[in-house]
Amino acid sequence: MSPLNRQQLNQIRDERREEIKQAALKVFARRGYTGTKMSLIAKEASISEGLIYRYFNSKKELFSTLIEELMEEARRELEHVQHLPGTPFEQIKNLTENMLDENNKYAFMLIERARKDDDVPENVTRIFEHLPTNGLIDLLVPVFIKGQQSSEFSPGEPRKLLTWYFTIVISLLTQEQEDEEYGLPDVEVLMRILTK
Amino acid sequence: MSPLNRQQLNQIRDERREEIKQAALKVFARRGYTGTKMSLIAKEASISEGLIYRYFNSKKELFSTLIEELMEEARRELEHVQHLPGTPFEQIKNLTENMLDENNKYAFMLIERARKDDDVPENVTRIFEHLPTNGLIDLLVPVFIKGQQSSEFSPGEPRKLLTWYFTIVISLLTQEQEDEEYGLPDVEVLMRILTK
Amino acid sequence: MSPLNRQQLNQIRDERREEIKQAALKVFARRGYTGTKMSLIAKEASISEGLIYRYFNSKKELFSTLIEELMEEARRELEHVQHLPGTPFEQIKNLTENMLDENNKYAFMLIERARKDDDVPENVTRIFEHLPTNGLIDLLVPVFIKGQQSSEFSPGEPRKLLTWYFTIVISLLTQEQEDEEYGLPDVEVLMRILTK
Amino acid sequence: MSPLNRQQLNQIRDERREEIKQAALKVFARRGYTGTKMSLIAKEASISEGLIYRYFNSKKELFSTLIEELMEEARRELEHVQHLPGTPFEQIKNLTENMLDENNKYAFMLIERARKDDDVPENVTRIFEHLPTNGLIDLLVPVFIKGQQSSEFSPGEPRKLLTWYFTIVISLLTQEQEDEEYGLPDVEVLMRILTK
DNA sequence: GATGAATGAGCCTTCATTCAT
DNA sequence: TATGAATGAAGGCTCATTCAT
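Structure tokens for the assembled complex are given below, as produced in the milestone run.
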């Protein structure tokens, strides 16, 4: 007799939750934790302010959830790099292009802000304390070493070069310069850092 | 009756104003506009909250003043590069080291945040609308061209290469990674972007 | 086409309405007007939140309805005392036991809260303004006087003694002390107030 | 050079804190925890809403502080009873009159509400879990026994009789019936419970 | 000039109420 | 009829700003 069955309701709930997360991602990424008003997220998601709280207990929880899920996603993507087709150079290039892609940009922007900003919920701070910046970098070290063996990459300490490289990549994508004159540097140019 | 004459009072005022700006710079740079409470600035400057308002009408004005003065300072510094001793490569290298220096870092961090963040007073947003990122870059183009003529720098469109280069430098210094494993990339490595 | 005829539907409606009132009584009595969330009533009645509004226009109306009906019920019960079997002493004792009985307790608790609490809808406040505490007491005065004539009750102003007595009885039953050491005072002890 | 010295400031702070507690006591006692809006307390104290938060971190803390201090005060008063002049009967009578006094009334009302109401901060609930209603009663048992030995009080289990007696007294003073016809029962009448 | 108490607008959050199904 | 998702007004709390001293 129920107007919608349980499965339909669950699906609606999941979709709505996903919409809220997408909206929150966009706003948090641009404005940071404190600078983001729940009303802005609500407007971005085209829903009322109150509704957010049926899906997330608080602004803090919404933010944390986002960060945790994005971190996990990033980890999966980095792990996956070694299974991409092509040489190590092509694998890293592929990853870089992916990171700079419009669709993934917000995710990395937000992670970056969450890591750098001081005005972030304590539990989020703790996530990054336990995971050093370059923690995820280790997943790429084997790929890089293979590239060094095939002389695609320049010699030198792998973790160090990779860390520098991704420091640059990540900081670049927080720039939002699409509409400006030259856009982001070509990936090929960026990769000079690794290839000399 | 007055124990201090007008000139001394003015000097005290100026010093106090400067202290407040220094404190504000530090806190704004780390926490952004919205994330910064006036009470934090007061504490950083070791004064009472109310006193700030004797020197600046509002948080917004304090922030704007800071940005405007830092922009002017940056402009002066860039203009001065061509008068530095040494070759164009050495001049740019010198500038870069200066930017990454601990003492100047906050200034560039703050400018960077002010330019990127969305939660910033409207009049500050307007400053950057009228001044494209690479507006200041034009000041360096003559130096770069001289370096190209002497083959210190790689050929290519000067504004484009310089823009990419400083995009990277500026975004790097917002990272605050002193305490981490590898620190910032060596300036020499960064300049590969310009020299190939 | 309809599987139930109008009469059956009406009966269901009435039963449902009654269930909601019972649930509301329990929750309002324990938590007061402001402290009671509609969601708690819904849960207590094992129905959805929205459904309550098919039967009552608002929380306020639900509360008022409850109070009015309970007041009427109380009035009927007090009126009925004189027709109970036994002496005046036994009649009053019987009434007292009835009031302290687990099943009737919530009703008196709620009336008591509605009368004392300040955070109650205005129209409920008005009910009690027009009806002094001891308004209902008058119904018992004849019984009491009969008891005085038969020397069951001590001499003294009947309304005054009865008011004091029921002030005590009613305030006692708001105590909810079942789980504590001594429970409520014996009715016999309480009635010393009336018998000296 | 400071306009007010530290001692003066501390005194102002203490007075203000006390004013807020007095106002809060009055409003909480009448309206309960949930039913009390901070704005009402502010109005009662003739200050702004925000100022309360310079003295108490939250509504919850204000409430808890109040309860804890009142409990401690009550304990002291009960302990003191045995040192009052007069016979045990007179000592208890004195205490009772004290409790029913207009000035102390709110304190007992609030304690009573805090103990009975369900919508109260968790830490307050815990205070009463660890301290049974009649926990404080034990302080009076020696006095009562002395009164039994001198035949001022009726025989019977002291804790039980005292508990019943104070259950009645406390619930009476929550009644707020000053303006009504008969006021509260005479203390002498109440004490019949103890003297038979 | 300097302090910190005081104010009140605005943000996060809750919950009575409405609405689509 | 029944459900629970959705809304928005209002309350708790923060913090930029003002003010008395």
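Residues 2-4, 37-39, 49-50, 52-53, 57-59 of chain D lie near DNA strand F (CB under 10 Å from a C1'). The longest helix of chain D spans residues 6-35. Further analysis is deferred to the final report.
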